[in-house]
Amino acid sequence: MSAAEFARKLRAREKAVGYWVVLDNPIGTERIARLGYDYVAVDAQHGLLGYSGLLNAMMAIDAGGRSVGLTRVEANDPAAIGRALDAGAGGVIVPLVDSAEDARAAVAATRYPPRGRRSYGPMRSGLRIGPRPAEADESTVLLAMIETPQGLANVREICATEGVDGVYVGPSDLCLAVGGAFPGDPAVADEFEQAVADIQQAAGEAGVAAGIHTPDGATAARRLEQGYTFASVACDLVHLERAAGEHLEAVQR
């Protein structure tokens, strides 16, 4: 799937499933990208990789040939967003979007003038996305994370911001945002589920995609059944540890 095809799919609010990568492991990322996920998201915010790791991951995803590479950037910053896109990301997930103003700034960083303020220098992305600015703009998706009390309060305005292709729920921070003492706190389970439903509804009313991070495929399927447009599954580090632990338990039994 090309970046342009993925952008069309997302904007049409067709269902999509992705995988989450936090390790600087391009060979592993390439193998994951061959499995058939619609996208593979590389975490430059909390992931254990630097810019060279991000660049290698984008090349590995392209080599896999079946998924589009996305990047969760470290901040709502034009430089961070531009570097991720120049590395070949088909879109960015921007954390800590609290308001429509934040959303407009993120959109501007992903679009070339006159629509935005992205600086032209697609050293790698120009090989496959664009390279004409208008074509690149149409092929690049912008997803705003809803994960703070302010973002939750302003979710309808964020979803209605021109150029926002979708919103993305960060469950850990969203749980804290609704009063949880820790991610997954059962004491706020009802409040958390209501927030998840409110975000999906706001996105639907605005006609944009709604995405969410999930711990496993079963949860991803449940969220899609609930009306979410796309869902990311777990991450490579968690699955590596889990698989190793399961094999050790099998031997010890």
Automatic annotation (TrEMBL):
SUPFAM superfamilies: Phosphoenolpyruvate/pyruvate domain. Signal peptide: none annotated. Residues 18-240 form the HpcH/HpaI aldolase/citrate lyase domain. The keyword Hydrolase does not apply. The keyword Lyase applies. GO terms for molecular function: lyase activity. Transmembrane segments: none annotated. Pfam families: HpcH_HpaI. It comes from the Bacteria. Keywords: Lyase, Metal-binding. Belongs to the HpcH/HpaI aldolase family. This is Aldolase/citrate lyase family protein.
